[in-house]
Amino acid sequence: MTKKYSLHSSIESIKTELKQLNKNLRKMIITENEVLYSAAEQLFNAKAKRIRPTVIFLVSKLINENSQISTEQKRLAEITEIIHTASLVHDDIIDNCDTRRGVETVHSIFNNKIAVLAGDFLFAQSSWYLANLNNLDVVKTISKIITDFAEGEVQQGTASFDSNISLNEYLEKSFYKTASLLACSCKATTILNKSCISIQNDFYLYGKHLGLAFQIIDDILDITGLLSDLGKPPGSDLKNGNLTAPLIFALTKKTELKEMINQEFQFNTNINEAINKIKVTNGIQKTRDIAEEHIQLAINILQKKNYRKKNKYLLSVTYNTISRIN
């Protein structure tokens, strides 16, 4: 699969909206509590990718007759980014991550209690702005994301260091933790446009497949990436007992990995040794194949007659997801 369109041109097409989004995010997390505000603001100082708002903006331009983005859709993009950021705070506490995107995490600067409260504060703020959209269908759709986050965390926690985890269990957890947000936010974007049910379903599936592909690629990069690119040490997922597709596939070829998992990678050298063992199997390629399947499913939706004429910017973002590991 090759990248056919320029990602730069896609970002340029919504440059103004992304710039305003960054300004609005800080206005939306204002609080009189200095510690809570500092903790929340810390999250928006990191070099975020803004993938989710980018997708929402581009879906909006694609489905709107005048190729414009409504005020409500812009607010939805902001709400989605706050929800995503809130989930990262809790993730970092659970995984005991000291850095994210090369920046110190909230709990490492303050403490776990403040970090939990900062995450809760962001969820509360997103809920407030969500309610003010005055669209019950959108509220129901976006609220499902927060439920799915919790479900995903519980599934990941109960499967920690479980060498018997199946690929289907891994994909289900990946949906709850990552793909649900994109699926539901894409659907909510179409609801705000008063699109018909078939279009709502199309973009729910588009977001689901793109979200799964994005998470799967992230899991490959956790094995193959560099500290300077990841913003955190390679193998962080393994160290935290989060067993992903490359390892699941590698287990069939390198059975000694199972013993290392059962020992919970207790020795520092175990992580690097496990990474090297995964790399010499076909686990990474098989994982990439799954990501490409989901990207193709997302592209197939964009290639439908209804969307074909104006889809080049959204296609470029979709293709770029897989090119991150080229």
UniProtKB/TrEMBL annotation:
Molecular function in Gene Ontology: metal ion binding; prenyltransferase activity
Superkingdom as given in the UniProt entry: Eukaryota
Keyword Plastid: yes
Signal peptide segment: none
InterPro entries in alphabetical order: Isoprenoid_synthase_dom_sf (IPR008949), Polyprenyl_synt (IPR000092), Polyprenyl_synt_CS (IPR033749)
Keywords: Chloroplast, Isoprene biosynthesis, Magnesium, Metal-binding, Plastid, Transferase
Requisite cofactors: Mg(2+)
GO biological process terms held by the UniProt record: isoprenoid biosynthetic process; quinone biosynthetic process
NCBIfam families: prenyl_cyano
Annotated family: Belongs to the FPP/GGPP synthase family.
Annotated protein name in UniProt: Prenyl transferase
Gene: preA
